[in-house]
Amino acid sequence: MLALGFLLLACVLVYAPALSAQEPAGEPELLILEVRLDQSVLSGAIPAYEVGEHTLLPLGELARLLTIAIQAQPAKGVASGFVLSEERGFSLNLDNASVTLAGKTESFDPALVLAEPDDIYVAVSLLEEWLPLALEIDRAGLSLNVTALEALPLQARLAREGLGDRAGTPGGYEDPGYPHHEQPYRLWSMPFIDQTLTTELQHKNGRTQGDAAYTAFLTGDLLGMESSLYFSSSQQAPSPDIRATLGRHDPDGNLLGPLHARSFQFGSLSTPSVENISRGISGEGVTLSNRPLTRPTSFDRQTFEGDLPPGWDVELYYNGALLGFTQADADGRYRFEDQPLSYGRNDFRLIFHGPLGETRVEQYSFPLDQSMVLPGDFQYSVTEHRDEDGQSRTIAQFDLGIARALTASAGLIRAPVDGDETLYSTLGVRTFWQSLSLGGGLVQAKDGGSLAEFDVQTRIGGVAVDASRLLLTDFTSELFPASSDPIVTQDTLRLTGSLPLTSRSRIPVTLEATRDERESGRTRTDVSARVSAYVYRTSLTNTLRWRDSGDLEHTTGSLQVSRRVRDMSLRGQVDYQLGSEGDISSLALSAEKTLTDGYRGTLGIAHTFASPETRYSAGFTKNLGRFGLGVNAGYADTGDIALGAQLFIAMGRDDRRADWRFDAKPMANTGAASVRVFLDEDNDGVMGANEEPLQGAGFTVNGGRHRARTDAEGIAYVDHLPVKQHLDIGIDNATLADPQWAPAIAGLRLVPRPGSVTRLEIPVRMTTEIDGTVYLQEEGVERGVGDIELELLNDQQEIVARTTSSWDGFYIVPGVITGDYRLRISPEQLQRLNLSDSGSIELSVSGDGAFISGINMTVSPASP
């Protein structure tokens, strides 16, 4: 199998020159940023570019998100509109590098503006001069924090809708109501493959040893289900590690008939952790659940786990603060277990870093009040599992919504403890009362031991407070192993909030304390404090941990610093101890510099004082285009030397084109869509032989603009889509070449699957405008009248368009496609204003785009 992997990669490398020739040239570094205004996430991902020390943001997309009336036309190199009021006109011209603000024209440095096919990208420094905004980019957390220096229309709308106070709510995006597109499962599909070939040569203790390893992760449809396969083998351990999983996911809960399941899986999988009883562990098993796929794994805790290619690491951020860091385990997976959720905002970001300099971001938001089960809803999850040591587990958990703010839970858990299986039963209840979340639970073991838990969660002055107490009576589990001096009580207090740093930014702070009291009266107290900040393009996180176990007191700390200087990224970490033996235990510093178009150089140095030992490292990577490549070298002052190289290729097949696509970034854990856009001249929704494909059409994905554009065949490949959740793909009307073109359907809603390409067809039709004037006839005098509401009905008597007449009575109904219609004045308004009209007008619209003008209507006071 290892030789087969080498052969597959060798075949791809034969075409490497051709693949490299297709890679984009001259591209600055691309970033994907989350956009946040106040407490609302406006977009989960907008593109941005790093050019030297400047960050360039998309002017048109940013204006759209913030409801600033500026439209960008990148093909023409211009942008126009106004800022908050029409008196503050805005005009940008790239040809002469000038901008006009409220009638005043000035020039700018053209190097700070970049025209791309999707938008005009402008440096932050210029945007802050032109717009009433303060823009702060958290490079470590890949987020853009916007502070409005003047009230924006969006802020007023969010306040009206009450979204401004709902932390974590993506207030900038609303469900557009697109029709659902169902993608049938296939018996077999060509999979997406993420594959890595690694070679290494080490000289250590006077011996030289080499190794080579091949790893592949495959996803796709198999036997009518989602499938994944992980394979890894090396020269030193030729017996391959194989992990395979089959299953389905449906956020609408339509799986397995009356069970209304949202997910089921079998094969290689991890068990969920059970609070106070068992940890999550990998192995083989089957799991079934109807719980919402986007809800936390338990009420006040969330576990993050997934597949991770070799050499990758992942950082977990909580409300902007760095929580932890991990790398792939032996099974090619990562796991952050039981991350606590607080009352209020719970925003998590997973930032993945690849060995070749790649970056990928996933974000999640879990408002705690949305974790409650709705009244009458019954949720379940059942797992049967056997770990790699042959120990079996059964986990069955159930929740029932009793009232709007009251949820009951129960469970049966069979788990090993010290080699013996133990059966546990659980009961619990949780309620929201005013600004409090109160919960209580009881765990009863078959051997007679028990555990009672009480907890409260609230917010006090902007600080989230979580407090809990456990009472244990002869209780043992994986988390509370048997002891001659067992724990009898455990108290936990957690405070999460932020402190003001500047007028624009705040410092996230977390303080957590746990106190255990044992049967003998001995106690142990653990306290941890974490402070994070981002100032002057520098990210800092300091963590302190203090433990007092009666006869021993110990304090350790860790300071992490990262800063971007022009096109160089610097990272440092200091681990230290405090107290009578306070000292620095280790230091590490790394630098990463962009050399050119996707090529990077890295240098690093790390020193451990206890050994003592100093290690030096250097590397060169390529992470853009069709494949990724990296070489690295390491040297230790003990004489150890290491040389290595890594080749990464992600590949997937687009069946519509019968063509393989290659990428330097992983794709197996994502979905894709092949979208065709065409001019539907006969209005049948199907592309005919003589109908024209539309080139250059763009798309929105969940409200944000995507960089994909249709080619000469009218086809665009929209890749790296999130999976197992609803996703809205729509036409970006601003990219259609003819202003009279309009999509027959604004977009489609789908649920992307890993390793699967969804085919979408979006017909575009020629539209026309209907215009005319509404007159008020009163006492023999006829004059135009404004604020009259008009409705356009189709042949099914459905209202398809509404408009309102202007002050002089003139109206326009834009974007009307071919068909038969009836135009009328709103009957409700006629009744409310005590008016009568001259009746509705029948219209027939052809497909030639000709305007229909002079459709006048008359209203008059109703007879008494």
The secondary-structure class comes to mainly beta
Distance between the termini: 91 Å
Put simply, the count of helices is 6
Q: Give the strand tally.
A: 60
- Main sheet overview: 24 strands, antiparallel, barrel
* Unreliable residue runs: 1-26, 160-172
Portion in helices: under 10%
Q: Name the average pLDDT.
A: 85
Protein name: Carboxypeptidase regulatory-like domain-containing protein
Signal peptide: 1-21
Keywords: Signal
Provide a brief overview of the structure.
This protein is 6% helix and 58% strand. The termini are far apart.
Description:
This protein has 864 residues and is mainly beta. Helices cover 6% and strands 58% of the residues. The protein contains six helices and 60 strands. The strands form nine sheets. It has a 24-stranded antiparallel β-barrel. A seven-stranded mixed beta sheet has the order 9-10-3-2-1-12-11.
